[in-house]
Amino acid sequence: MSLNRKNMYGNRACCFYFAVVVLLASCSGNYEVYKDSGANLEARVEDLLARMTLEEKVWQLNQLILGDNLNVNNIGEEIMDIPAEIGSLISFTTDPEMRNAMQKRAVEETRLGIPILFGMDVIHGFRTIFPIPLAQACSFNPELTMQASQVAAKEAKLSGIDWSFSPMVDVARDPRWGRVAEGYGEDPYLASVFGSNVIKGYQGKALNDTFSIAACLKHYVAYGASEGGRDYHATEVSRNTLWNVYLRPFHAGIQAGSATVMSAFNDISGVPASANHYTLTEILKQDWKHEGFVVSDWNSIEQLVFQGAAANRKHAAELALNAGVDMDMKDLCYKDYLPELLEDRKISEERLDDAVRRVLRLKFTLGLFEHPYTPIVSDSLRYLTDEYRNLAREVATESMVLLKNDNDILPLKFKKIALVGPMADDSVNIMGSWSCHGKATDVVTIKAGLEASGLYEIEYSKGCEIDAVLPNGLADARRIAGQNDVIVLCLGEYAWWSGENGSKSTISLPKIQKELLKELAQTGKPIVLLLSSGRPLELYDVEPYANSILQIWQPGTMAGYAVCDILSGNISPSGKLAMTFPYNTGQIPVYYNARRQARIPYQSQGQGRYKDIQNEPMYPFGYGLSYTDFKYGNIILSDSIAEIGDRLKISVNIRNMGNMDAEETCLWYISDPVSYITRPVKELKYFEKRMIGSGEEETFTFELDTYRDLGYYADDGNYFVEPGQYYIMAGTDSIKLILK
Ligand code: GLC
């Protein structure tokens, strides 16, 4: 059975005809339909569009910056004399008065009074900073991410923001690429679920709700495949991988109603994402029927010249608009050349109007014409309420992943702690990249969190800088280690070592940090290693020296309390890896959902194996320890034979064998051992996280839809399901299903 991609016209045709009728009525008199909040949406769009001059239309398709540019990677001169007819502004300020003053110019001083759309990068919190998205994915608790997004939207909206450039749903398999921190890991399904929950949290029930903001799926598409993990570089992606890996989270995001999409920087196998008609128009707008608009990434239109796709900026504007980019972020190619291109008949008025229509439609839907200004609310009411802090603490606690815990050294039984390492009292890097308006002074450091608990006697020594020697640091750290029962060693990365333009040639910890670890290991005291990073790290030469390893990622404002929750045993760690930890950098790329290699049967005889290291990663996708043990029963299948289109009930019992209540995530995979186009060894299709009481047993159920969960895309984007054998997997068990 296959679903042919075709253009279905739903009820939009009737709206359009209705709009025309109203439009004719409005042209007969002074009735300005677009100003009538009770009028039909499409009628308002058409009425306003009909009144616009070419210059007014072109300005709607441009975005500039209001105030300072806080994104150091966004290079370009400041445009100070911003016209009030501008379509959108990136606003890096928290000052609603600044927004309102600019908006007043647009609404009250321009001919048509079209409000400006204010956007910015709210990636994992606005002022209350939640863990980086990669960490949130490890929580396998998308409901918490949805709630965190609601908080971010409220703080942003009250600071003058209508639109966030997130969720970033780029599937990524190369941890050298710094932007793995911003996404949801290596699995398309996981990225789909988390991206959709961010959209739900931002956009609420209606975009014109008081605290709703518009979402922006980015970076469309396949940016995570940047070669060598080098940011802004080209990608080589087969159509099959494009459809089955990189497009899936975007399709889910469109189905979740994302208001906008951002076109990516990268070249996609020879056609840059911001000039790619196939992805931007044929797939996104025609096949998926996206009615919102596409904004280019920063300068990604002008960059078509550097990428060898456009001869000059005018040609770049032509390629981008015709491909399907509706709004130009910052490089003014549209402002400079669209009128000329229209005159030269290089672009059509129909396409230009389509782009303007999409922008206006969002502005009407957001309610900007009725409520263009931000209410002025004090910071104490706007930010960091106890509710927000408690949620940030919960998300951080659930996102941490216990990688090693020899002899159950955790939860801590010791009272006297030697707290060591450059991350122990860090309040900046612990927030991660894209920390928006998070302030270091808001952060609960690891040291502060442990001290506040009153559970421990703590002696602190930094030991070293993140990437530099600290005079007498090693000796001082060794000294306090000798005087205490256990060493809690906090190592990790600068925030700017990941995120945009944060590529690294190695995912190893800095040399000085490994020296500190080895120095402390010589004391013979047990070491609990906490790792704060924006990416999976190389740990093969670190792991042997630590008794316990907790990957805390970059947990944000409430870092210290979350760390203490875990170390003290107040809460059992429940995170599982959303991205593989390679054995070492040389093993990259290594990810769980890879296709099968040709000599599996002879691997034990060395076939297809490295000569110098193991083939297996250090820690695989889905790995994470708990303070208890969970025993999985056998998988029960409602029917072992089914037909395409059937839905099956599959269940497994999971028992908590320990003496501590703890959450467990059941990951459900499918495997298709023989297929027309070869598939990954296994594919995540569902997951469920639940608390299981000590000694208790819970039944986890997966409602498998044979069409939705067993099918895949061919190169042309047609989705199909093949009859044959499949395996359903959970825990260590797998069960066969015959599909007729
Ligand atoms: C940056 C990023 C993009 C961000 C935009 C605005 O270059 O690539 O993710 O949303 O510019 O800051």
Topology diagram in text:
Elements: E1 2-3, H1 12-28, H2 41-51, H3 54-60, E2 62-66, E3 88-91, H4 96-109, E4 117-120, H5 133-139, H6 142-157, E5 163-164, H7 188-203, E6 216-220, H8 239-246, H9 248-255, E7 260-263, E8 267-268, E9 271-272, H10 277-287, E10 293-296, H11 303-306, H12 313-323, E11 328-329, H13 333-343, H14 349-366, H15 379-382, H16 386-399, E12 401-405, E13 416-420, H17 446-453, E14 457-461, H18 473-482, E15 486-492, H19 511-521, E16 527-532, E17 548-551, H20 559-567, E18 630-632, E19 636-637, E20 641-642, E21 647-656, E22 662-671, E23 683-692, E24 697-705, H21 706-710, E25 712-713, E26 719-720, E27 724-730, E28 733-739
Parallel strand pairs: 2-3, 2-11, 3-4, 4-5, 6-7, 7-10, 13-14, 13-15, 15-16, 16-17, 20-28
Antiparallel strand pairs: 1-26, 8-9, 12-17, 18-21, 19-21, 21-24, 22-23, 22-27, 25-26, 27-28
Helix pairs in contact: 1-2, 2-14, 3-13, 5-16, 6-7, 6-16, 7-9, 12-13, 16-20, 17-20, 18-19
Bound molecules: alpha-D-glucopyranose.
Alpha-D-glucopyranose is lined by residues 71, 73-74, 121, 165, 218, 297-298, 500.
Shape: globular
Uncertain spans: 1-10
- Helical content band: 25-40%
Average pLDDT: 95
Q: Name the hetero compounds present.
A: alpha-D-glucopyranose
Describe the structure concisely for a colleague.
With 740 residues, the protein is α/β, with parallel strands linked by helices. Strands 12-17-16-15-13-14 form a six-stranded mixed beta sheet, sandwiched between helices. Strands 5-4-3-2-11 form a five-stranded parallel beta sheet. Strands 20-28-27-22-23 form a five-stranded mixed beta sheet.
